[in-house]
Specification:
The structure is a single chain. The chain is mostly beta strands and 185 residues long. The protein has one domain: Lipid/polyisoprenoid-binding, YceI-like (Lipocalin). 11% of the residues lie in helices and 57% in strands. An 8-stranded antiparallel β-barrel has the order 1-4-5-7-8-9-10-11. A hairpin with a 2-residue loop joins strand 7 and strand 8.
């Protein structure tokens, strides 16, 4: 037990060099919010995500790719989900993935505060900024693996991706939230 504690403490003290992490789909959630005719905010989530993260805290560099399976959309109402998966909305048969790829990590002193990148959806690529509300890298004691996690959110205009159905009654502005955990393989 003493040896385990010494190894654990040593691993926590070591700086995290550039490392490649794999997104853990069981701890990663992509959700969205959109105005519904001014009456309410409708919410949904995507059940399947994947991706990779490369991160070097000391150099303040890294690359992030989050892949969202568009067909895994779930708003809690099957009929609406089927419509949203169709050609007038997400068109999941032609465009099965929504992908966010980072271009730049933004730091305030030592703290990661945002990720600027490109969101690809419906065959279109648009700049997107994800603000980071929480970020942590370290040893997950339960999994006994090093990992990184974050709560990120950004705003997009669906019309910029050609998703115009229901405008202006259903909002153009969509809030995208991604909670992610990724671990060394």
């Amino acid at each position: 037990m003493r040896t385990f504690l010494l190894v654990l403490l040593a691993s926590l003290a070591l700086p995290a060099a550039a490392a490649g992490y794999v997104v853990d789909p069981s701890h990663t959630y992509a959700t969205f919010e959109i105005d519904h005719m001014g009456f309410s905010t409708q919410r949904g989530q995507f059940e399947r995500t994947s991706g990779q993260i490369s991160f070097d805290q000391a150099a303040r560099t890294g690359e992030i790719e989050i892949r969202i399976d568009a067909a895994s959309l779930d708003t809690g109402f099957k009929l609406r989900d089927d419509v949203l998966r169709g050609s007038e909305w997400f068109n999941v048969e032609s465009f099965p993935d929504i992908i966010f790829r980072s271009q730049r990590l933004v730091f305030e002193e030592e703290r990661l505060t945002a990720v600027e990148g490109v969101l690809m959806m419906l065959g279109e690529a648009r700049p997107m900024r994800l603000d980071i509300a929480r970020f942590k890298c370290g040893l997950n004691l339960a999994m006994r693996k090093r990992g990184c996690g974050a709560d990120a959110q950004g705003v997009l205009r669906r019309s910029e991706f050609g998703m115009n159905t229901g405008l202006p009654f259903i909002g153009d502005e969509v809030r995208l939230r991604i909670q992610v955990e990724a671990y060394l393989p």
